[in-house]
Amino acid sequence: MEIEKLQGIIEAILFTMGDSVELEKIALAIEHDEKTTRKIIHNMMDRYNNADRGMRIIELENSFQMCTKQEAYEYLIRIAKQPKKFVLTDVLLETLSIIAYKQPVTKLEIEKIRGVKSDFAVNKLVEYGLVEEVGRMNVPGRPILFGTTEEFLRRFSVQSLDELPGINQEQVAQFQEEAEDEAQLRLEI
Questions:
Q1: Contact 64, 23 (CB under 8 A)
Q2: pLDDT per residue over 104-155, tens digit each?
Q3: Angle between the N-to-C axes of helices 90-102 and 119-127, in degrees from 0 to 180, rounded to the nearest 10
Q4: N or C: which end of the chain has fewer CB within 10 A?
Q5: 39 to each of 7, 45, 71, 106, how far by Cα in Å?
Q6: How many domains does the chain fold into?
């Protein structure tokens, strides 16, 4: 089958599915190996990015998704009049960071790190689709484990969690020391 026809089929798959589609499934559908399929999709991504088009293809871990280019967003708002933009407060960002770096993680572990209740923050992040339940811990009470979603990857423009910036261990030690000093001051009061 010629390359243009394969690209058209892949385009139809990604457009119709809406959500991300695993590379393996696309390869099976077009009856090619994953390496060839990935190469075809990457060529398509380059063409979409270089052309004056409103769509683009993004890679999310080992999946691909067709979505709107950011430049077209304001025009979509004029039509839809409701794409809901949510605000990530410092509390939500702090909680999201903990989940992203420690996942899978329980609310109790998040609260231990933050030092305050985190029900509202976790629930808001779930509502925004950035965090989801990824299982339950195999201990008494079976607490829920949380992790980030594909929407998290999309919103923060990363293909996988491996692309998140590394944690500076010296800074972590400094923060830990400051937190312990603050806890000690509270005990003295």
A1: yes
A2: 999 999 998 888 899 999 999 999 999 999 999 888 889 999 999 998 988 8
A3: 80
A4: C
A5: 11, 10, 26, 39
A6: 2
71/157 Cα distance (integer angstroms)? 15
Return the residue matching tokens 């594909």.
150
Instruction: Name the burial class of residue 66, with classes exposed (0-12), middle (13-18) and buried (19+) by CB atoms within 10 angstroms of its CB.
Output: buried
Entry pTM: 0.56
Token look-up 């039509």 returns: 79
Q: Is residue 12 part of a domain?
A: yes
Location of structure tokens 């589609």: 21
Mark whether 96 and 66 lie in a shared domain. no
Is 109 in contact with 97 (CB distance < 8 Å)?
Answer: no
Per-residue confidence at 169, pLDDT binned at 50, 70, 90? confident
Contacts of 4 (CB under 8 A, 6+ apart): none
